[in-house]
Amino acid sequence: MCSPGLLTSENAAPVPQLFFSPALFVTKLFAAARSQSQARRFPRAAGPRDGIYSIRCCACTDIIRTSKNHPTVSHPRVQAASAASGTFDVLSMNVAGLPEILNGNGESGDKTTNTAIIGQDMAKFAYDVIHVQEDFNYHATLYANDNHTFRTATSGGVPFGSGLNTLSNFDWLDFTRIKWATCSDASENDCLTPKGFTFMRLRIDEGVYIDFYNLHADAGTEAGDETARAANLQQVADYIDVWSTGNAVLVFGDTNARYTRADDGIRVFSTQNGLTDAWVQDAEGGVFPAIGADALLCPDGVPTNISCEVVDKVLFRGNNFITLSNTGFFYDTARFLSSDLATLSDHNPVRVDFTWTLATTLRQSDLQGGPHGTWFNDLPSLPASPKAHVLTLRGGARLDSVAISLTSGASFTHGGTGGTAVSLTLAAGEAVLSGTLCWGQFNGDMRNFYALFTTSAARTLTAGVMTSSCATMTAPTGFGVVGFFGQDGDEMDQLGFIYAKQ
Asked: Where do the Jacalin-type lectin domain residues begin and end (predicted)?
C-alpha cells in the first residue's frame, strides 16, 4: 500500500543483490528472482491481452489508476482546465544490470557502485520520464539512489524479469509488460530472460495523455538475431496500431537496431505507425542513413557530437489533439561518469527534450473507470468543426454504452447492447457542456456504472446507477462534447470526453 514520502511499489522488500559462484546460479538466482517476481505480479483477467500482466503504480495522488486488482480510487471533484502547452524530457538508458557473473560489460568499477551513481545522476538531473533496460540484479540499488515519485515495480532479476522499468514525474493509468513472441540465442542469450516491451498511458496534464513504450529487442547480428529483432519491432508496431489508435506515442529504449543494417526492421515505426526518430531528425536532417552503408559507430567514451548512431532510439508522434515537437537530441554520457570519469554502462544514455501543444479547437477530459476492454478513440474520425446532434446512453445496473451523432452525419457508439436506451436530441445552438461519471467494481473489474450529461440549455440525460466514486468533467468555455475515448466491451470500462469548439 502507499505511504507518505517517496511513493513507489518499491517500498516493499528490495530485490537481493546477488553475487555467487556459477554452481549456485540455478538454486539461488532462480529462487530469489522468482520470489521477487511473484511478489510483484498482478494477473489480468483473460481478454484481448490474455497472457499479459499489469503492474501496480503506487502513488498517493488524487487518482490512482492500476490493474484490475488495484482499481481506480478517486475523490469526487470537478475537473480543472489543462494547460495549452508544456515541456518535458525523456531519457533512455541501458543500465547494464545483468549479474557480473553473466556480463561484466567491460566498464570500470563494480556494478553496485556504478548503479548507485546512475540512480543519483537520474535524480540530480530530474529527468521527467526515464526508461531503463537491463535493470535486473542491481534494481534495488538503482531505486534507493533515485527520487522519482512514480516508478514501476520490478518484474524480477535474471531469469524471471524483463529488465524494463520506468521512473517518472508523471502518473499513468495502466502499465503492461509484454514478452516477445520471438527470441534468438544465435549470438546472445536473449532467450534467458522474458525480454519484451512495456506499455503505459502517461497523464501529462488534465486530459492530456501520451502512450509510452519501453523495449529491449533481440541482440546480435547473426541471421537468427536479425530475424528475431525484426519480429520484435514488428510486434511493438502492431500493438501500437491496436492499443494506441488515435493517440500521441513515444517509443524509446534499446532497439539493438541500426538504420544501416538491412534486416533490422527499425523503419517499421515510421512506415506503419507514423513515428519520427529524434536522432534521424536532428543528426541526419530527417533522412534515414542508407541501408548497406558503413555503420555510424560512436567512439569509446563520451561522444563529442550526435553524428554517430546508437541502438538506443527515441521515436515519437503527436495526434490531432497534441503536437509533439523535438527541441533537442543529446547523448548524456558526460552526465553519467564515475569519480575517475569512466562510463558507467556500455550504452550512451539518450535524452530528448520535447514541447507539447494542444490544438486550439480541441480539448479532452480525464479518463474515468478501469483499464479493461478494447481501446477506442473517436478523435481521428471527427469532421471539421464537429457539433453534437443526438446523445444516446444505455444503462441498467451499470452504464452499458454511450453514443453520439453529429450534425455532419458522423456517429460513434461504444459499449454493449444491454440496458435501456435513452436519447436526447439537441436544439440548434445547444451543446453538451458537462458529464458526470461514477464507477465501481463488477466481477473483479472497475467499470463505469453511471453517466449524467448536462447541456447548455440545462437539459440532462442519465443512465445507470450512481456509486460513491464520481467525477464531473466540464468542457472549457465555448466547447462542447463531440466524441469519446476509452476502453469498452459489453459495458463501459473506461471513458473520457472529447470537446470541440462550438
From this structure: 373-501
Q: How far apart are CA 340 and CA 343, in angstroms?
A: 9
Encode pLDDT of 58-96 as tens digits. Answer: 332 222 223 333 333 333 445 566 789 999 999 999 999
Candidates 55, 158, 58; CA nearest to 101 is 158
C-alpha cell at 136: 535486473
Q: Cβ distance 365 to 79 under 8 Å?
A: yes
Taking only the tens place, the pLDDT of each residue in 229-282 is 999 999 999 999 999 999 999 999 999 999 999 999 999 999 999 999 999 999
Containing 198, the helix (H) or strand (E) segment is strand 196-205
Name the pLDDT band for 100 (thresholds 50, 70, 90).
Answer: confident
Instruction: Give dist(CA 46, CA 144) in Å, integer.
Output: 35
CA 186 vs CA 136, 228, 256, 311: distances in Å: 22, 10, 14, 19
Please tell me whether residues 290 and 241 are part of one structural domain: yes
Distances (CA, A) of 493 to 45, 223, 372, 486: 13, 44, 6, 8
- Give the β-pairing of 208-215 and 248-254: parallel
Residue 17 lies in a domain: no
Select the more confidently predicted residue: 40 or 482: 482
Length of the chain: 502
Burial status of residue 78 (CB atoms within 10 A of its CB: 0-12, 13-18, 19 or more): exposed
Which grid coordinates belong to 493? Answer: 470500462
Q: Are strands 411-415 and 399-406 parallel, antiparallel or unpaired?
A: antiparallel
Q: How many other C-beta atoms lie within 10 A of the C-beta of residue 87?
A: 11
- What pTM did the predictor assign? 0.86
SS3 state of residue 223: helix
Q: Which residues does residue 316 pair with via DSSP β-bridges, in sequence order? A: 250, 276
205 vs 164, 221, 500, CA distance in Å?
25, 42, 18
Residues 6 or more apart from 35 whose CB is under 8 A from it?
Answer: none
Host domain of residue 191: 27-358
Let me know whether 436 and 307 are in one domain. no
d(CA 308, CA 300): 11
Cα(459)–Cα(388) distance, rounded to whole angstroms?
Answer: 14
Residue by residue, DSSP assigns 132-160 as: EES--TTHHHHHHT---SEEPPP--STTT
Report the distance separating Cα 45 and Cα 56, nearest Å. Answer: 15
What is the identity of the amino acid at 299? Answer: P
Amino acid at 211: D
Same domain, 366 and 351: no
Strand order in the sheet with 42-43: 42-43, 53-54, 172-179, 196-205, 208-215, 248-254, 312-317, 276-277
Count of the separate structural domains present in the chain: 2
